[in-house]
Amino acid sequence: MNAKAIEAAARRWRPARHPTAVTRTWAWPAYMSVLAQLVYAGEKGSYAAQGRLGIPGGPLVSASQYAETSDVALTQWTLALLGLLSAAIALAAVRPWGGLAPRPLLLLGLWATGALAAVSQIHVVRDVLFPTGPGGWSVWAAVQGGAGLCLWLATAWIFTLRLGCDTTAVANTGRDPG
Q1: Is the pTM of this model over 0.85?
Q2: How far apart are CA 69 and CA 76, in angstroms?
Q3: In a structure prediction context, what are the per-residue pLDDT tens digits for the chain, which is 178 residues long?
Q4: Residue 37 CA, distance from chain mean position
Q5: Rounded-to-integer distance, Cα 30 and Cα 81, Å
Q6: Distance of alpha carbon 65 from alpha carbon 157, whole angstroms
């Protein structure tokens, strides 16, 4: 590839408009999602430091699950980092710097995370409504997870529709408008 072809390919990935922040009227679900993800990451980090599996409000973890997990701390730290990554994705959906990432990539991250959270929440609610044994999920965990899922899906929907964004500001990309 020559230099002109590389430059043309790079221009296709540049935002066509100035990235703008979403107004607070529309951005609050994303900020609440970020807060929830930071709490989740903190809980996972706390459990990682203690060498414990699970999450507060979750079911008791059996000794066999500890035996099946090769490195408990690494597992929990990985989940904590995934919580931080999802917080960054939620922020990118409403902050101007999020416009620097390709839009399809952010949409994929938002909706895939929402789908995974929905599947997890189905299992939590099922366990609360139909307990299968001692030490199941608490009702508070089900309510908290349901609220978090609703906030996340609202964030994904707002980003998908680009609600609260100024979509009329054209960026100076150096391209010839004609």
Answers
A1: no
A2: 11
A3: 677 777 766 655 555 455 567 777 888 999 999 999 999 999 999 988 988 888 877 777 777 878 888 888 898 999 999 999 999 999 998 888 887 888 889 999 999 999 999 999 998 888 888 887 666 788 888 898 999 999 999 999 988 887 666 555 444 445 555 4
A4: 7
A5: 18
A6: 37
List, as one string, the DSSP characters of 41-56: HHHHHHHHHHT--S-T
CB atoms within 10 A of CB 5: 9
Contact 178, 136 (CB under 8 A): no
What is the Cα Rg of the chain in Å? 20
Dist CA 111 CA 114 (whole Å): 5
